[in-house]
Amino acid sequence: MGKASIKKIIVDRVIALYLGLFLMALVVLFRILQLQILQGDELRQKAEDLMLKYVTIEPNRGDIYATGGKRLLATSVPYYEIRMDLKSNALKNEDFNQGVDSLSYRLSRIFREKSKAAWKRDLTRAREAGKRYYLIRRQVSYQHLQEMKTFPIFRLGRYKGGFIPIQSNRRVLPHQMLAARTIGYLSKSESGNIVGLEGAYDHYLGGVKGIRLMQKTAGNIWIPVNDANEVEPENGYDLVTTIDVDIQDVAENALLKQLSLHEAHHGCAILMEVETGDIRAIANLSRNKNGHYTESYNYAIAESTEPGSTFKLAVLMVALEDGFIELDDTIDTGKGSVRYYDKVIRDNRRGGYGIITVKEAFELSSNVALSRIINDNYRGKEEAFVERLYRMHLNESLGIEIRGEGEPLIRYPGDDYWSGITLPMMSHGYEVRMTPLQILTFYNAVANDGKMVKPRIAESIHHYGRTIKRFNTRVIDPSICSDETLEKIKIMLEGVVENGTAKNLSNENFRIAGKTGTAQIANAKYGYRVDSRVSYQASFVGYFPAEKPKYSCIVVVNSPTSDVYYGNLVAGPVFQEISRKVYATSLDLQQDLQSKDGFLAEIPYSKNGYRIELEKVLKDLDIPLSGETGSDWVQTTKTDDCIQTDPLSVLENLVPNVKEMGVKDAVFLLENVGLKVIIHGRGKVLKQSITPGSRIEKGQRIVLTMSFT
User: Fold this and answer.
1) What is the pTM of this model?
2) Distance CA 427, CA 319 (A)
3) What is the mean pLDDT of residues 163-185?
4) Strands 221-224 and 238-241
5) Confidence of residue 647 (pLDDT cuts 50, 70, 90)
6) Domain boundary at 212, 241, 270, which?
7) Cα–Cα distance measured from residue 148 to residue 636, given in angstroms and rounded to the nearest whole number
8) With contact defined as beta carbons under 8 Å apart, do 295 and 181 qualify?
9) What pLDDT, on a 0 to 100 scale, did the predictor assign at position 599?
10) What is the C-alpha to C-alpha distance for residues 147 and 159, in angstroms, rounded to an integer?
């Protein structure tokens, strides 16, 4: 092969190589143009998504208040996580080096787990490592946050000082367990907030979420891009409930005492205002595995059980409405038992009650009498009996805003499990199911002259002091029965406390009307008897004062383990304690403290003192006053029909007579004339160490001995 051929081969290969390189360059150029022009926006967005993201900012949740909006039941307390951007371009070495010593000292003063030297060492190392999101402290209170904003370096702000506070809120109950289950809590499940008032009114309390732009830094740490949020969150509205904290406290303590005394499994108590249906107290307590009682389940609203004898009110109301009975009609209860097919119904009294009236049957809670009344009059007319119960809304849920209301059950003839014994069993509260709140609503309607109102637990919604929405009382039925029947029913309810099973609840200050209940608790698998043992549910439901009802109340105690399980002895004392507390603190329920002739039974004792204040007090109390009106200071004398006043001489530069005065008036007089007063005891002035009428020496000490030492 010649030199020319070799040269040609080399040239061809070089040309081929250059062509190849040129083609590769074209391909690369095409790919660059494709990425820049055709896919550029998409790829840039993907890159940005890897470095930037939007996160939601939770708003401040609205507060929950007791009735009147003065006392908090639930609130959100802000806590902060404090971070520091030690690589911020605006944080100068000069500022850091000059301030780190003082900053370390200040941090060691409020967070004492690390010394000043340790804080300085860690901050310096973080600065050297270029930490962008260095953790200073979690769970910092608002007070500490405000203090930290004044610290060296931190006070320079987000960029120059690298100070990054991140807020989070924690829900707290100021009264701890008080009405805790009714207030509820925030659920993190997919179904959202479903517990108590927190769940029922979440759409008001929750507010509107905000948005913050976050940037990923080295170490996969996300930090805010801007000081402000891109979309600011809107705080939630406040909820004002009908709960009265003082009454709630009484209800829970009274219930706890009885549950502990009888070692019961659980119980509940509800106090409702008759006219409005406002729930003033709703207590739920159950025993945990450690033997302590806590609010873990809302039995008052959710537990639907066989009510027992408290259902007898509805049963007799049906018979009275249909005209089958009158209160003085008699029933032969025999020796206290009656058989229906294979079922024997018994009275609690051994040997029975014999022949008794309808009124006595209700007062004594005779199962035999009630079953005979209903079976004799409605056998073959079962539909009429049940439909009358339906017309009184006893088969309907209340639609209470708090989720989880138990379903009432009143079977209709022909339904599954309807049998030949269903009618007599229903007559004394079995083979039906109702919740405590549903039963109370029915009794409240009786107290409210037949008007049935829906229980109300929320008064209003507020936002920064402005009322957004009011929840008015809703009437379920303006009249559940005739006025004639209502009057008879009230007589029977009052008779239970005056003559019947709840005589132990009678008191001399105000009258109570109500009904006891003692029901056996059925086990789904074993029936009413498990291991030869029967569990009971004790209850009492009624209203007070009987002559002009203001409040209705129900107490239910489940599974007391002691031998005492009757409603009047287990549930009754809780009702009694609640009613007495409410009566004692409600001035509008008090009887006039006057005798029949319109005058006080006895004129009270009055201290010497300042005439104008004395006249005002006596006028407000409608106590007659007679005597001197020209002197500023008077001495008093009690007579048979008035308070007699005489002038009390107070002369310049002479020690006044302050005997028989209260401490306020005595100190005022003596200090005004330049004496230094020393008081021993309390009450009225019994003795004074300087004789009245003595010459005053400025700054002289005078000792007052009071009537109680």
Assistant:
1) 0.72
2) 11
3) 87
4) unpaired
5) confident
6) 241
7) 63
8) yes
9) 46
10) 19
